[in-house]
Design brief:
This protein is mainly α. The protein has three helices and two strands; from the N terminus they run ββααα. It has a two-stranded antiparallel ribbon with strand order 1-2. A hairpin with a 5-residue loop joins β1 and β2.
Length: 126
Amino acid sequence: MENLPIPAPPTVVQLPDGTYAYASQAALPVHKTAPAVVHQHIHQAPPDRTVQRVALGSGMGAGAVAAGVYFGPLLVGALTAIAVDLGLLAFLAAVMGWGVVTVVRSIGGPDGKAAAENLGKAGRRR
């Protein structure tokens, strides 16, 4: 407490209407300069930390939270890749089925057309 600096006494000024008032640092004239230009790169939004905050609040360790931060996006990426692969396989199966039905109709004659109709009916029943 003894080493604290002693504040300077406040400055008293007389206002134009004749009254006296204390002058604060905010009331003193300020030399105005142009505002600084801030050049900021915004790459992406920061990750949502709600789950990590809940985990830390419930008593989980920092290692479990760090694993969630690290493996969470990896899990989302892996599941997305699997979904894309399954979608591609479903598309290929549909295209190949359409090709088989078209070839059977065009080459098979009347028997082929009947077989294609049976295949189409079987597909609609499912």
